[in-house]
Amino acid sequence: MRSVSHYNTVIPPRLFSRGVFFSQLCRMHTSDDESFFRDALLQWYRPDRRPMPWKAITDPYRIWLSEIILQQTRVEQGLPYFEQFVEAYPTVMELAAAEDEAVMKLWEGLGYYSRARNLLKAARMVANDHDGKFPDTYAGLRGLPGVGPYTAAAIASFAFGRQVAVLDGNVFRILARFYNDATPIDTGKGRKHYQELVDRGLGDAEARLFNQAIMDFGALACTPKKASCNVCPLAERCGALVDGTVYDLPVKEKKVKRRTRYFHFLILADGEGSTVIEQRLEKDIWQSLYQFPLVETTEPGLKTDALALHPNWPDGLPARDLRFVKRSAPMKHLLTHQTIITVFHHFSWANLPSEISGRIILENKMFKNYAFPRVITRYLAEKSLLLDLF
Ligand code: SF4
Q1: Which residue ranges in the chain fall short of pLDDT 70?
Q2: Does residue 237 line the site of ligand 1, with CB under 6 A?
Q3: CATH 3.90.79.10 residue window(s) in the chain
Q4: Mind telling me the catalytic residues?
Q5: pLDDT tens digits, residue range 120-142?
Q6: Running DSSP on this structure, what letter comes out for residue 324?
Q7: Pocket flag, ligand 1, residue 176 (CB < 6 Å)
């Protein structure tokens, strides 16, 4: 095992602090380390360690679909969606011809709905501008909506055998730990630095195999909270293991700032079980999905009777005609940069009109025709509201 003298400067452990001494902590990288890293990963890799339906194929459509679905989604959650999409739209041309509403509905529950909108835009771009064929280079793939550097590298290498290395959260973590490198991963400079490291790690290995190996290694072995250091093929030269910094790495410079929003949904129902929904049209979370009329506030603990007086009470809904029935307990939903607290307020509206401008009067059991954010579908399912509004 190498000693800490292998580093540029030896920093006493008590002085180690996130992001402060990163330049001193970076290892002297040698080509020997890089070839060790590459060989150990490739020897460790076995396709059957993490079997997935899109692994053994080179069809760019399915690879692209799987990569878009897996952005910000766990494999177990994404797998059934992948299968449903492939069944409903076996080719990119069929997806390009799909109705927006149908695609949003199929995406329902996966979250981050901008991915579904970009999925459609990209499919139509491939169909209309590329004659139904995916671009076969990294640069060409980057021109498709929703395809960032990681996704382009994954498709270029898996589908077209291009010599490009992927860099995602797993790869950042493995590199930062192996090289005991506290360069922050969330800056442009940091990203460039780690891309250079992984490119050198790839070397002249087959990119398709190397990328699969490093991604599987991050998912199965060098995991964020329970790294398998005791059986790790990289352990012999892993800098973070030597210095005891495994769980301090990788480092981020900026802390995520969260804002809290309070969503008061109004479930307005007549005696027949009809209710009112509307589409979210603003550029905001859940854009183009459906919801119950909403009073959004920034203050916690707003009572139902104060809602009607709130400046954000929706136009066209006469509060005086509504009779309060009940309300749900507040529920908390964590998104990347936002905390959403939802409360569902149930009202009876005896003379619910058959039309309200800008809204849809939904007859009972018709929820299934519209795509709602998960916070709403969960509530409907929990309360069995698909069958009985009250
Ligand atoms: S020894 Fe531990 S920290 Fe280092 S690469 Fe292996 S699993 Fe990751």
Answers
A1: 1-29, 256, 365, 384-390
A2: no
A3: 259-382
A4: 67
A5: 999 999 999 999 999 999 999 99
A6: E
A7: no
Give ranges for CATH 1.10.340.30 in the chain: 4-248
CATH dotted code for 4-248 = 1.10.340.30
Please indicate whether residue 228, judged by its CB atom, sits closer than 6 Å to ligand 1: yes
| Atom 2 of ligand 1: nearest residue by CA position | 229
Helix (H) / strand (E) element for 191: namely helix 188-202
Using most ligand atoms within 8 A of CB, pick from 44, 172, 177 the residue to mutate for ligand 1.
177
What is the third-level CATH fold of 259-382?
Nucleoside Triphosphate Pyrophosphohydrolase (3.90.79)
Whether residue 177 has its Cβ less than 6 Å from ligand 1: yes
Cα 280 to Cα 156, 176, 225, 353: the distances in Å are: 35, 41, 37, 21
User: Hey, whose CA ends up nearest to atom 4 of ligand 1?
Assistant: 238
C-alpha–C-alpha distance, residues 90 and 107, integer Å? 16
Residues constituting the chain: 390
Tell me if 103 CB under 6 Å of ligand 1: no
Q: Report pLDDT digits (tens) over 212-264.
A: 999 999 999 999 999 999 999 999 999 999 888 899 999 998 876 788 999 99
Tokens standing for residue 80: 């059934």
Q: Given CA atoms 294, 297, 300, 301 in this order, what sign does their dihedral have? A: negative
- Torsion (CA) 41, 47, 52, 58 in degrees, nearest 10: 90
In angstroms, rounded to a whole number, what is the distance separating the alpha carbons of residues 356 and 11? 68
